[in-house]
Amino acid sequence: MNTRKIVRGGQVVTPSDVLEADILIDGERIAGIFVPGTLDQTGTELIDARGCYVFPGVVDPHTHIQLDTGIYQTADDWDVGTRTAAYGGVTTVIDFATQFPGMTLPDALDARLKECAPARIDYGLHMMVTDLPSDPAEARRWLEELRDLGLPSIKLYTTYRPNYYADDAILLHTFRAMPDDMIAMVHCENDALVADAARRLIEAGQTGWAYHAQARPPEAEVEAIRRVMHLARVAGAAVYIVHCSTAESIRQVARAHRTGNTPPVYCETCPQYFWLDDSRYAAPNAQHFILQPPLRPAAWQVKLLDVWPTLSAISTDHCDYSLEQKEEFPDFARTPGGLPGLETLFPLAYSYAAAGMRPQPDAAAAERLPLTELARLLSTDPARIFGLYPRKGAIIPGADADLLIYDPQPMVTIRAANLHTRTTYTPYEGLPVQGQVRTVLSRGAVLVEDGALRGEPGRGQFVRGQPFVPLAAGR
User: Fold this and answer.
1) Which position among 96, 99, 181, 259 has the lowest Cβ density within 10 Å, counted as fewest Cβ atoms?
2) Is the model's pLDDT at 331 over the cut of 80?
3) Which pTM value belongs to this model?
4) Is the peptide bond before 390 cis (omega within 30 degrees of 0)?
């Protein structure tokens, strides 16, 4: 069977340029990028990209598909979660394996890989580490074994007692145990500030969803980021700050970059922190917006076009709880936190960062993020940091043929009824976006075409992450 395809006539977004080109695919890989019309089309399948941009498939480095926290379980599974991703042009997710009490790290990985088996797209994994040996040498052996299994990244939390919480001593112990070619992702919130704010609200009887943001103040995130970066610097560990929800959080990382922070520090943010603010908690359907960290006051809000040079990724922190789960208890402390976001990530980022759409009709005309930078934040840098590049993350010869063909012309309104998650809501209901996904290819196979899903559950592959290598300075 001939496995050659030509994606023809599109504006191809490479790591350095946007150019009209034809892409030759041979089997699962990109064979080359050519001047339009110069390829022999005999015996090839032609995929029309005229009038469209061709981006590398999105690499989302922070998702929670089929999440079990020990308290809550999301409503989705790996078939549903990766189907949702595919419709949004996400061709690789990096999710998490969790070390539950009594588990070794290989046991935790094996258990998660069994759950991932129905995946429709490729995936990598980070490890949520909750119990390392106290002996430093033994702890390092555990982490070296994990890295050699294809997980060069671990996840730590400065909050969430008792399940995940790591105090400063645990953080230092873990950072010191890490080999130089691993990186730690850290959820940063000062647990004492969060616990104090929540306690005072509960004592005052202010437990409704409207008070959720007050229970996790922005100062808690900023302080924890500063502390984590300091501890990592003392221990000599590379860190990646997840879901920065405030502009000041990202400015803290920018300061570390300017002072030549060694070892490196990276950060991400998520769409909810650009386009939504804490006024949603005073509006109907406040339960739709319960997540950690919460939406922030407008004065603290992330403005992407101000901070993008510091960022290494735009992720989703996708966490697909059902509306029934969200509405079971009208109490912020008992409502599972997380938002669906995989299918809407690219349209939102393209529309409000690259296409210059304005969040409000009376807002000033927006600057535009270069398309190459959009591809860096949504594909290339996440793949580099977590060891998937050059197989994933860029349209270059030899890479997997993971492609997103995006038609920038239609104006579309986001509606939950048109999405493919198991839940029945979206935090972006009614938001207009410019363009829509036309075609998605995963390892050379057409996965989505004109709104129709192809392929079977289980075609996705586990992609082993290579050992961590720092990016160039400032990334």
Assistant:
1) 259
2) yes
3) 0.97
4) yes
The helix (H) or strand (E) run that includes residue 195 is helix 191-203
**Structural domain for 286, as ranges:** 1-475
**Number of folded domains in the chain?**
1
The residue with tokens 């429709």 is: 120
Give CA–CA dist 83/211, Å, rounded.
Answer: 34
Token pair, residue 74, equals 């999301």
161 to each of 130, 192, 347, how far by Cα in Å?
11, 11, 36
pLDDT digits (tens, 9 = 90+) for 237-264: 999 999 999 999 999 999 999 987 678 9
**Angle at the Cα of 64 from the Cα atoms of 195 and 400, rounded to 5 degrees:** 145
Work out the number of other CB atoms within 10 angstroms of the CB of residue 412.
15
The C-alpha atoms of residue 14 and residue 372 are separated, in whole angstroms, by 7
User: Residue 41 belongs to a domain with what CATH number?
Assistant: 3.20.20.140
Contact assessment for residue 136 and residue 177, using Cβ atoms and an 8 Å cutoff: yes
pLDDT at residue 413 tops 50: yes
Closest by Cα among 207, 206, 109 to 149: 109
Check residue 474 and give its pLDDT. Answer: 43
CA distances from 393 to 71, 165, 381, 387 (A): 34, 32, 7, 10
